[in-house]
């Protein structure tokens, strides 16, 4: 008979393997969508004369596609570093809110481990992990947050993103304008899928809709990247101006 510690170890190993496999199956569609998305980033980096090392460092250290596209748009022979840093901070500040929303579901995890893991947090990882945690709550799991599930998705996206961006800077110029193949639809398509999965009633959608309309209006009226700032501030102002009870979900 195996000692109890060995049995517990085998159960833990089986659990981790099962969660990693489940996470990978969940992430596959989005991993595929990362391929054209990352290649577009790499191709744009090549147009801006960014070296492959600079691109890999940006993707590896920042790991936030939206802000990386903004940074490449601002990239010049002498990069305006302060402006790029400010824009990156502004675009990525949503990660603070995303991290806060995950605290209730992963409060039993060691803080040091989660702080390191949150380095890999991106929109897609956040959305899939949150959906999975809510589902586990409804199914009565004692621990709603699955760390193996989270870290498998996060690492899969991280590796895919860097590799595809690198492919983009190498072979993107050979393919020409990637938008002619419809690759630019990958970005909105991914977020529409995530939005559908996260949709929790029209009340919670009001900040998103307000932010969208203001960002579109500013984009049409004012040249430059100001629509990013306008959309983000609009969403925050709507949340701050409405009472918290307005966003409560009615499960009746």
UniProtKB/TrEMBL annotation:
UniProtKB keywords: Cell membrane, Membrane, Transmembrane, Transmembrane helix, Transport
Domain of life, per lineage: Bacteria
Subcellular location as annotated: Cell membrane
Chief place where the protein resides: membrane
Matching Pfam families: AzlC
Membrane topology: Multi-pass membrane protein
Keyword set includes Cytoplasm: no
Transmembrane annotation, as ranges: 23-43, 55-75, 81-102, 150-169, 181-199, 205-222, 227-247
Similarity comment: Belongs to the AzlC family.
Protein name: AzlC family ABC transporter permease
Organism listed in the record: Commensalibacter nepenthis
Lineage, top ranks: Bacteria, Pseudomonadati, Pseudomonadota, Alphaproteobacteria, Acetobacterales
């Amino acid at each position: 008979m195996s000692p109890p510690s060995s049995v517990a170890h085998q159960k833990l190993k089986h659990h981790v393997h099962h969660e990693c496999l489940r996470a990978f199956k969940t992430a596959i569609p989005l991993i595929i969508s990362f391929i054209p998305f990352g290649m577009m980033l790499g191709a744009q980096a090549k147009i801006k004369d960014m070296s492959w090392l600079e691109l890999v460092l940006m993707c590896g250290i920042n790991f936030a596609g939206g802000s990386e596209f903004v940074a490449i748009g601002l990239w010049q022979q002498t990069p305006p570093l302060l402006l790029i840093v400010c824009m990156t901070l502004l675009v990525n500040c949503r990660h603070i809110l995303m991290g806060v929303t995950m605290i209730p579901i992963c409060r039993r995890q060691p803080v040091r481990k989660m702080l390191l893991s949150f380095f890999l947090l991106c929109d897609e990882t956040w959305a899939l992990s949150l959906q999975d945690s809510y589902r586990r709550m409804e199914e009565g799991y004692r621990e709603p947050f699955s760390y193996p599930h989270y870290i498998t998705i996060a690492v899969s996206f991280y590796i895919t993103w860097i590799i595809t961006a690198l492919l983009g800077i190498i072979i993107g110029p050979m393919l020409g304008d990637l938008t002619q193949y419809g690759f630019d639809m990958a970005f909105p398509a991914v977020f529409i899928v995530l939005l559908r999965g996260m949709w929790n009633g029209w009340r919670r959608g009001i900040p998103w809709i307000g932010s969208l309309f203001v960002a579109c209006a500013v984009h049409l009226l004012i040249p430059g990247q100001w629509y990013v700032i306008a959309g983000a501030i609009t969403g925050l102002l709507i949340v701050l101006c409405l009472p918290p009870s307005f966003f409560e979900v009615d499960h009746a």
